[in-house]
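Q: Got a minute? One more chain.
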Amino acid sequence: MNQVLVLPPLVADGSGMHFTWIDWLVVFGYLALTTLVGHLMRGKQASIRDFFLAGRSLPWPAVCGSIIATEISGVTFIGVPSMIFALTGNWTYLQWAIGSVVARVIVGKIFVKFYYEREIYSPYDFMKIRLGEGVKRLATGLFFLGSILGQSVRVLVAALALDVVTPLSFGTCIWIIGIFAIAWTLMGGMQTVIWTDVMQFVLFVVGGTFALVWMLGMTPGGWEGMVNFAFDAKLAGNAVDGPNWGKFTLLDFTTDPRVEFTLWVAIIAVPFQNLYAFGVDQLSAQRMFCCRSEKDAGKAIIWSSVGQLVTVLMMLVGTALFVYYHVEGAHPIEAARFASDGNNVFPVWITSEIPVGLRGLILAGIFAAAISSLDSILAALSQTTLSLFVDTANQEVTDGNAARMLNWSRVLTVIWGIALSAFATVLNELRGDVDMVVLAFGMISYTTGPMLGMFVAAVLSKWRRISLAGLCVGVVLSVLTVTMYRMELWGVLMKRGSMSSEQVQALPTMRVVETVNWLVPVSAVTDGGKYTVKVPVNEIQFNGSEQLIGGDPGEQIATLVANGLTIEVIDDKNFKEWDLATSLTELSGEELLISGLGYRSKEGQVRLMVVGEKSIRSLASLEESGAELRVDASGKVGLVSTSPQPKIGFAWFYPITTLITVMCGVFFPSSTRRNT
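A: Always. Here it is, folded:
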């Protein structure tokens, strides 16, 4: 028998995993207030200049707040706390702020000067002026590709978190976000987008600060207790040589190119990413064109660096979550959600620990973050799409057809809003078969370097001959280079059976990573780690199952006890109690391998949370299937697996592909020279 059938998920003693009508009243009340403010601040909408550039009349502090709000998104609000909460999580991610600030200063001092030479609507208009229509179309196509996947996944992540903590379906969460984003963009174009973004920025800060203060109030010793516990935390996998600074480990001087969060990546590679993000990507760059002057645009970009303080705030939230759950313990339903997906940590804490109404306000921040990102990309996509068919930089053309141009802009906004919302639902459907989420996040590696390279080529065209054919070759070479090193394509081929793991590992761009999952006795299970315990079936006591309070319909939890360790097994299938009991009886005499997350219960007891029946296997069935077992000198048994891993971390492709694109554009044979 290969697997043990287990009983469904989970019981908690009223841990509050319910979203009440009061919470919904707060969420929709906030969204209604934001909509009203957006309506009042919409200004005149007589032309596409008003719709896409806000008449170039906005104050730079508002533009600055909008840049920060768009940058943060739901991924930051949810993902950063979960990253810090993980047992191996620390503050090394903050090193990337160095490269981010450096890039913003360069954009504010240099890029803005080029963009204000003439009245243009996007960086791609600048490329057209310098290098011709072909380069603009190439850059716009890459922008479309990255935006469709990258921005859809931002909505997906926010909707998945909301799906966990609200009774709404995933699809409903997606379309609520999409409808509000379309409405806000249609209402007043960039004028409304920017002012509503300012409100989202305020809500991010208020929500994050309130959550942190509330956590500290629930943590013994408050701020001092949290800091001391986090400093003393012994984290697995710290890359830094020397003293272990626990959660607050910040600087990493590792020179291994495969490690992502190091000081060298931050000061060499990350500036290239952010030069693109703030200076070339229309999602953020469009805000520069809404300022009253070149000087104001520069200040807006440079001062948006204070947004890194919001990242620090969310890292503190993640640290406080780590301390809170390791000190106070978790309900089974909370542990189950953490075990199934680490991104559930902050949303679950909000709904289980924050009072009714107040949690609605914080969760409104998640909705608002997703809407903020989506309405921004809708304006950007609408403008760049229209510019493929109309010379928007020609004021005679736009003014002569003002009403028609404005109507087409709004139609394109609706079309793109529906398309992106629908695509987010498709991403969710495909996650099990093809890891489209990883592909979407990886898109930035494919498009960042080539687009930044085309901008640099446009600047160099004043002094050097630039070839459109060369830029096209550079883009192709860049994409092929990233494809060879990243796992998106190879992961799809492996899942579909077109390539084996061994074949991918043999590629010159990959290395073989060996992982040994050591089997531990139940006495070794501690709080916060992921373990596979080896237990003889005869030593397991089955204590029945119960309905999961606060879970989805049909979720149950089955309780096992092995040598004093409580093992809780959850699943979303309506198993009968005798299924698990019968399976255990049939496996009498065999050894079971049970994989799960160790956590501390509210009663102070360490337990093992197991998600799904596939997490329980017999040792005999693994040996029959050819699994490699390793026994060390002490007799400890481990399951050995190998997997391919790129030889270079993804951040290094930003400078590499930028240089490839520029060099191809400069040195490829060309018969023309742009010099305007």
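A: The two ends are 75 Å apart (CA to CA).
Q: Perfect, thanks.
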